């Protein structure tokens, strides 16, 4: 038996009093996060030339601010503790080259906090959820049940820029997962302007047309917003429009990534991908936003857990593996400029460039699996 995690996300419908309390908690979480970040930043400046010393420095804790700022005692202390964990993770990601230096949290962004299940402080019953420090349970729109054998571990409560409240409930359950014999394998080549090209038929997984149209609409709305006078009534109206479009496209993208990862996890026993360093890639190639927004990171996370829960595998191959240079037929390597869409080898092999890469990724994965 192994422990598995699964998250369930629902709309929350807090009343006025509850909304005030949630706002207070978001505010306190943001406050301690920014306080701790400020301290960490100073430490970083002081010791940045001495990585060993920097590692030795103790991380500030939320408890130390409670005397100076007593309002922090009024909210869920687990939420504050989680702010510390989030910041620590953000730091770790920065140091290990996966992310940029953590930024201060702003009131204008999406608001959220995370709390944990401790001694049944969270209860889900009769269409309401009881959360720590909030007296009256909050109404929840539960479109699907959480199975009885799933234990609640933590909850993340969030408020979007358009004022909608959500709760993501992380659960844990035991499952007997047998590793299955790997027979059907597919390799994926990351595609900058879509999602990926697969090795079997050379098919490209591209975002649907309605999504790309929605993105264009969003970009247009953002341009209009940038021309409006900040703080004016017309600006505020447009800001809300942008936020709504943004939420809509984010949902569409998420659904698409769920759909594609589900399809692959159903049809194959192992999926091979390159272990890409997204941050390095967008910097080195100057692609900027498109790589980050492409959704590859989210997609590979979905893929990983969907395969895992069936005893299947996601195999990541080295990011330096020369998947584009190699001829997937004879194994010879050559430089191929980005502008060349077709791979032609002296052995006579001719194939679409990305399809050739995807086959190389697959073959390398098969070698690692053997
Ligand atoms: Zn060849």
Automatic annotation (TrEMBL):
<dbReference type="InterPro" id="IPR010095">
    <property type="entry name" value="Cas12f1-like_TNB"/>
</dbReference>
<comment type="similarity">
    <text>In the C-terminal section; belongs to the transposase 35 family.</text>
</comment>
<dbReference type="InterPro" id="IPR001959">
    <property type="entry name" value="Transposase"/>
</dbReference>
<dbReference type="Pfam" id="PF07282">
    <property type="entry name" value="Cas12f1-like_TNB"/>
</dbReference>
<dbReference type="Pfam" id="PF01385">
    <property type="entry name" value="OrfB_IS605"/>
</dbReference>
<keyword id="KW-0233">DNA recombination</keyword>
<dbReference type="InterPro" id="IPR021027">
    <property type="entry name" value="Transposase_put_HTH"/>
</dbReference>
<protein>
    <submittedName>
        <fullName>Transposase</fullName>
    </submittedName>
</protein>
<feature type="domain" description="Cas12f1-like TNB">
    <location>
        <begin position="296"/>
        <end position="361"/>
    </location>
</feature>
<dbReference type="Pfam" id="PF12323">
    <property type="entry name" value="HTH_OrfB_IS605"/>
</dbReference>
<keyword id="KW-0479">Metal-binding</keyword>
<keyword id="KW-0862">Zinc</keyword>
<dbReference type="GO" id="GO:0032196">
    <property type="term" value="P:transposition"/>
</dbReference>
<keyword id="KW-0238">DNA-binding</keyword>
<keyword id="KW-0815">Transposition</keyword>
<feature type="domain" description="Transposase putative helix-turn-helix">
    <location>
        <begin position="1"/>
        <end position="47"/>
    </location>
</feature>
<feature type="domain" description="Probable transposase IS891/IS1136/IS1341">
    <location>
        <begin position="168"/>
        <end position="283"/>
    </location>
</feature>
<dbReference type="GO" id="GO:0006310">
    <property type="term" value="P:DNA recombination"/>
</dbReference>
<dbReference type="GO" id="GO:0046872">
    <property type="term" value="F:metal ion binding"/>
</dbReference>
<dbReference type="GO" id="GO:0003677">
    <property type="term" value="F:DNA binding"/>
</dbReference>
């Amino acid at each position: 038996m192994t422990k598995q995690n699964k998250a369930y996300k629902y709309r929350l419908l807090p009343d006025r009093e509850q909304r005030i309390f949630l706002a207070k908690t978001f505010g306190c979480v943001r406050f301690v996060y920014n306080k701790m970040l400020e301290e960490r930043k100073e430490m970083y400046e002081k010791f940045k030339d001495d990585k060993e010393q920097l590692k030795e420095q103790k991380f500030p804790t939320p408890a130390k601010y409670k005397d100076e700022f007593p309002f922090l005692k009024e909210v869920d202390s687990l939420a504050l503790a989680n702010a510390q964990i989030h910041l620590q993770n953000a730091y770790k990601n920065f140091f290990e080259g996966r992310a940029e230096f953590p930024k201060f949290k702003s009131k204008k962004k999406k608001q959220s906090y995370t709390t944990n299940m401790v001694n049944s402080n969270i209860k889900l019953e009769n269409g309401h959820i009881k959360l720590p420090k909030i007296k009256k349970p909050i109404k929840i729109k539960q479109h699907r049940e959480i199975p009885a054998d799933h234990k609640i571990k933590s909850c993340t409560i969030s408020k979007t820029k358009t004022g909608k409240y959500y709760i993501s409930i992380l659960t844990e359950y035991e499952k007997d997962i047998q590793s299955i014999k790997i027979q059907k394998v597919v390799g994926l080549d990351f595609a900058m302007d879509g999602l990926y090209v697969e090795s079997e038929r050379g098919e490209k997984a591209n975002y649907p047309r309605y999504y790309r149209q929605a993105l264009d609409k969003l970009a247009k709305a953002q341009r209009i917003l940038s021309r409006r006078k900040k703080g004016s009534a017309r600006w505020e109206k447009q800001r809300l429009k942008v936020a709504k479009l943004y939420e809509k496209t984010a949902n569409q993208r998420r659904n698409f990534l769920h759909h594609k990862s589900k399809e692959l996890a159903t049809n194959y026993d192992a999926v091979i991908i390159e272990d890409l360093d997204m941050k390095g890639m967008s910097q080195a190639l100057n692609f900027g936003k498109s790589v980050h927004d492409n959704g590859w990171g989210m997609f590979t996370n979905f893929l990983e857990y969907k395969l895992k829960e069936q005893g299947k595998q996601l195999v990541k191959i080295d990011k330096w593996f020369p998947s584009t240079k190699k001829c997937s037929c004879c194994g010879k390597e050559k430089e191929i400029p980005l502008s060349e869409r077709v791979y032609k080898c002296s052995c006579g092999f001719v194939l679409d460039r990305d399809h050739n890469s995807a086959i190389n990724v697959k073959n390398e994965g098969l070698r690692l699996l053997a």
